[in-house]
Amino acid sequence: MDYFKLNNGVKVPALGFGTYQMPASITEENVAKAISLGYRSIDTAQNYGNEAEVGAAVNNSDVPRDQLFITSKTQTSGYRSTLRGIDESLQRAGLDYFDLMIIHWPTIDNLSTYRALEDAYKEGKLRAIGVSNFNSKKVQKLIDHAEIKPMVDQIETHVYWQQNKMHDFLDKNDILHESWAPLGEGMSPVLGEPEIVKIAADHQKSTAQVILRFLTQQHIMVIPKSTNPKHIAENLDVFDFELTNNEINIIKNLDQGHSGVNWPSSMGQEAY
Ligand code: NAD
């Protein structure tokens, strides 16, 4: 496993396990499987309805809590409801702290919502805080007016929307770029892109592995999701090879510069 460092010094696995649209009834077994294979970072959210099952897998695992990195996301707006929501998430998951809590999507008053994350961070309930689906203007507002700079922005990022402008902006501000839908949510034909198929064959890897390596080599954290045991194992096995500059440039050229799902609209390239 490779690790990145957040701007508050916290170490974060470069690759984690996503749980969006994973039914609660199968989440604990899948997260337990992922942890036993070597995943050390799990991504859940209040909105996913599976925080309790993620927490159960963490608490029933042989891996010490301090070697795991658990992320959740708020779905509330404003100070009080967000503070309450964080406590409810901790209680649901049966955890003393989250390693990262991010605002799931922009709210009416981002500063008040974010202030709740700051206060929970100061109390030790969160080891790191950040945002998701925030464009550069919204992140800049937090940099200018919040007390604590966000540590992460989790945004849709894959081969067809590489988010180069956001990446440069986040990099310049020492905020980690985290990709959601690194494999294009499995909806797009990206896994069959002929150029990537060729690169994968040259490295004796799958196209999914090449894409995950492409992103992590550029200092982008990834959290691919799967419930297929073969894919769960495959997605983790990406740190024993390196793409050449030429291969990276070939994949860079596949960027289409727009979202695959067009959500939220405030993230559009033109709204950067
Ligand atoms: P993803 O890009 O991880 O794709 C998941 C799909 O790809 C799976 O359903 C599976 O069908 C397929 N897949 C996975 N591994 C494969 C492999 N090795 N070979 C072939 N097919 C494979 O999409 P995602 O789940 O939407 O995104 C990853 C995670 O990001 C989510 O689970 C969630 O935790 C997070 N997320 C966050 C937001 C947000 O708004 N912050 C939005 C969407 C997702």
How does this structure look, described?
The protein is of the alpha/beta class and 272 residues long. The protein is built from 10 helices and 10 strands. The chain has helices at 24-37, 51-59, 79-93, 110-122, 136-145, 164-172, 194-203, 207-217, 229-236, 245-252, and strands at residues 3-5, 11-13, 17-18, 41-43, 69-74, 100-103, 129-132, 152-156, 176-180, 220-222. Strand 3, helix 1 and strand 4 form a beta-alpha-beta unit. The two termini are 32 Å apart. The mean pLDDT is 96. Nicotinamide-adenine-dinucleotide (NAD) is lined by residues 18-20, 43, 104, 132-133, 154, 180-186, 191, 206, 208, 223-226, 231, 234-235.
Walk me through the topology:
Blueprint: E1 3-5, E2 11-13, E3 17-18, H1 24-37, E4 41-43, H2 51-59, E5 69-74, H3 79-93, E6 100-103, H4 110-122, E7 129-132, H5 136-145, E8 152-156, H6 164-172, E9 176-180, H7 194-203, H8 207-217, E10 220-222, H9 229-236, H10 245-252
Parallel strand pairs: 3-4, 4-5, 5-6, 6-7, 7-8, 8-9, 9-10
Antiparallel strand pairs: 1-2
What's the short version?
This is Aldo/keto reductase. The chain is an alpha/beta fold.
Largest β-sheet summary: 8 strands, parallel
Strand order of the largest sheet: 3-4-5-6-7-8-9-10
Order of helices and strands: EEEHEHEHEHEHEHEHHEHH
- What general form does the structure show? globular
Summarize model confidence as the mean pLDDT: 96
**Bound small molecules, which ones?**
nicotinamide-adenine-dinucleotide
Relative strand content:
5-15%
- CATH architecture verdict: Alpha-Beta Barrel
The number of helical runs is 10
What is the CATH top level name? Answer: Alpha Beta
Count of beta strands: 10
Determine the structural class based on helices, strands and strand pairing.
Answer: alpha/beta
> Spans of 5+ residues with little confidence (pLDDT < 50)?
none
Please name the fourth-level CATH homologous superfamily: NADP-dependent oxidoreductase domain
Helix content range: 25-40%
| Rg (CA only) | 18 Å
Overall tally of structural domains: 1
